[in-house]
Design brief:
Strand 2 and strand 3 form a beta hairpin. Helix content is about 40%, strand content about 15%. The protein has two domains: about 100 residues, no CATH class; about 160 residues. The radius of gyration is 32 Å and the shape is elongated. By secondary structure, it is of the alpha+beta class. The strands form four sheets. Strands 5-9-8 form a three-stranded antiparallel beta sheet. The N and C termini lie far apart (about 65 Å). It contains eleven helices and nine strands.
């Protein structure tokens, strides 16, 4: 059938997959025509093309239009018997001799914007209080913890804020079953981040609710103009002594400080301590 069609509508180069435009249209394939992004009707395209001496050829790479799972010689041969299509058997033989290079799945680009690179779109004090006070979420309690720790001109890292907040809440008689202690260990009377190699079922500081809350809260405050974020690269480890080349390991560290608007937000949000305590008392590990 392909051979007959090619004889009627133009030559088909089986190796290069070059098919005439008339062949595509005659076989009811959906063909879209454009000129510099402007869509044309089929009649407009045909009229325009008819001005030339001959119809152009179009290269169609079927790899972009068929399921790659079908490009298996044994499957195609079985289908040729099942569907009674000798063309499939012929194609199966070609694929057996020359295996086509299957396209690799494109990986979705990861969002590589760090917290310090987030663009700022300031909101009013009332809008901020409405968003933060009226909805319970890890992001909102994280923002509250950041603001609570940075009052009076302090400059701290996310890790330092986490340690301060967890120990402060322990002293405020927060429920001992609270999720706030997940990812921390008590050493000599003080809670410290639990950091180790990732293991299935093991909750560490970087996978803890507190760390997630502080990162999300920091991102919100940075984007809305209430916190300044300074990013730096440090080497080695904050948790253990390293030797040799291990000391060259890089860590991205964020140092946070309230902006003038952040200071006003901290002064206006009168029940910060209660908000944080109430949230973590309702989150049980």
């Amino acid at each position: 059938m392909l051979k007959e069609t090619s004889q009627r509508y133009g030559q088909v180069d089986a190796i290069k997959n070059v098919i005439t435009l008339d062949w595509l249209i005659a076989n009811n394939m959906q063909v879209k025509f454009e000129i510099a992004g402007i869509q044309l009707k089929e009649s407009e395209a045909k009229t325009l093309l008819s001005i030339g001496n001959e119809m152009p050829t179009v290269t169609v790479d079927l790899m972009d239009h068929v399921d790659s799972k079908l490009l298996d010689s044994s499957k195609l041969f079985n289908l040729s018997i099942e569907k009674k299509h000798p063309e499939l058997a012929s194609l199966a033989a070609k694929l057996a001799i020359t295996t086509p290079e299957l396209p690799k799945k494109k990986k979705q680009p990861r969002n590589r914007h760090t917290i310090s690179q987030l663009s700022v779109k300031k909101i009013s004090l009332d809008e901020a209080l409405d968003q933060l006070c009226n909805y319970r979420s890890l992001k909102n309690v994280g923002a509250a913890m950041v603001i609570n720790s940075l009052v009076n001109g302090k400059c701290m890292t996310i890790r330092e804020i986490a340690v301060q907040q967890v120990n402060a809440l322990w002293n405020q008689d927060v429920d001992v079953q609270s999720e706030i202690f997940s990812g921390f260990k008590r050493v000599q009377g003080e809670f410290k981040p639990f950091v180790t190699k990732p293991q299935k079922g093991l909750l560490t500081y970087h996978s803890s609710p507190v760390y997630g809350a502080l990162r999300d809260g920091t991102a919100f405050l940075k984007q809305t103009g209430f916190v300044k974020v300074e990013e730096s690269i440090e080497y080695g480890s904050a948790d253990k002594k390293l030797t040799g080349t291990e000391n060259h390991l890089q860590r991205r560290v964020y140092r946070l400080e309230l902006t003038e608007a952040g200071d006003v937000l901290a002064d206006t949000w009168g029940d910060l301590d209660k908000f944080i305590l109430k949230f973590w008392n309702t989150r049980k590990a």
